[in-house]
Amino acid sequence: MIKVNVEINNKSWLKEIKQPKKYFSKKLKKVSKIVKFFKNKDITFTILLTNSPNMKKLNKKFRKKNKSTDILSFPAFSSKSIKLMKEKKFYIGDLAVSYEIIQSRGKKNNFFKEFDKAWVHGLLHLIGYDHIRNVDYYKMLKIEKRILNLI
Predict the structure, then answer these.
(1) Domains of the chain (ranges plus CATH)?
(2) Which pairing describes strands 89-98 and 71-75: parallel, antiparallel, or unpaired?
(3) pLDDT digits (tens, 9 = 90+) for 135-149
(4) Whole-structure pTM over 0.85, yes or no?
């Protein structure tokens, strides 16, 4: 099972997603059925629904990049160590998502599709996926698409 703590420091999110905790609970039930990593585990993570100025601060502080971004992932474990975890119950890390960037992309597509794309991508980073090499990029993209098609 996957549990999420939802923190909101920008009220604009509530215009789009009335009950964020419920929104995630429904989707995460489906994710846990198709991602092998989550099977027979009790996993928790936190997502901060924030704004672009705050994302810029976080990005500068933790990644040394002085610009806003759509999603930031803060894994609790390295990609190697999380794959070796024997515990069944643990905390995998934090995500932060920018309202303005998701909302801007949503104008062209759909707010919820863009939001789901961002947090799913971030969640995969928390469980050890990355896209540094092309082979890893395609592996991550494949699982991302499977999840997005299901939820």
Answers:
(1) 2-150 (3.40.390.30)
(2) antiparallel
(3) 888 999 999 999 999
(4) yes
